[in-house]
Amino acid sequence: MGEGFQERVRAAGCLRDLPLAQSMVDLDVASRPDEHLIERLLNTATTRVMLVNHGLIAVARDVASSAPAALACADDPAAPRPDACAPAAPLAPAWLDAHAARQLATCPGTLAVYLGRDAAGADPMSYIALDITRTAAHPAGGMGADLDLGGEPACDAEWVLQRYDWVELRSFAPCAGARDVGLATSAVAVCAWHASQRFCPACGSAVRPIWSGWAQRCTNPDDVDRMLFPRIEPAVITAIVDDDDRLLLQHNRAWRPGFFSVSAGFVEAGESLERAVRREAAEEVGVAIDEVVYLGSQPWPFPASIMLGFCAHAVSSAVQVDHDEVESARWFTRDELADAVASGAIEPPGRASIARHMIEWWLGAPLS
User: Fold this and answer.
1) Domains in the chain, ordered, with CATH?
2) Phi and psi at residue 26, in whole multiples of 5°?
């Protein structure tokens, strides 16, 4: 057992201000069952509407195009692209005006999700996400060719898509304010659930959204009382340290060359979080763990995870990778890691990930 391990971890404090864990609005859960809530809010001047399409967030047209490589990482889900070139100025969703939002919400296939309300100030602000993933799948003229977006000419689905740039959440989060990131995270998570669960898992019948987008109901007349809610998949992610306070980083076979991160894996049925930490470390890098300390958590809606972060102490420094999932692993001192990142010898996780913040937490400073 590492001498003073728990004391050192607790002295360093828990993870704070994780990018996808900064929701600042009142989720207002009690209002969700109101069948007319979305319609009423879309006719309220203090409602703001963001757009989602295939898990991407709409931003102003000229934002993402200024740094396309930094803002596009959907093609590499195992290891998002580095985001060092992301815009320095804060990003914000492209809020849709009320007139356009009301018309778009009525188009076939559009999903509306109530994201909550901000009660600060004299006029509480409400937030809605409109997911046009399936709306955009309708041919021109089929989704509402008469749609009038804020005084623009009548348009089809393709025009709606081309009006904005579309940013992946992992690239949006490091560049946006906490409120907007929290809203976007909820929107992407709920919309991803609806996209993946279109039929009742019990009887196979189609489902329809209810509770302002936060639940589904089976359309089978014999199963009409069945309500379905988003399922969350817990995963543990662990900063493993040894007696010399070195950090163990690994390179998985699915990742591109040079990308290194900490140990992570899904929690299995009937398994505690601490047991999952020990099992993953043993399976992937052959390291035995004794003490485990919780650090913090962050939603990871790609498509439906929550990452539960831990720091764990390795009984020994011997490493034996499985060569199935993990290709290589090595211990780093703080100076070694800082030098490897600065020189480009290794690429760390992106700034939106809890893994990046765990590494910086151990390092005691931001990575370059």
Assistant:
1) 5-18+232-363 (3.90.79.10), 34-194 (no CATH), 197-231 (no CATH)
2) -75, 120
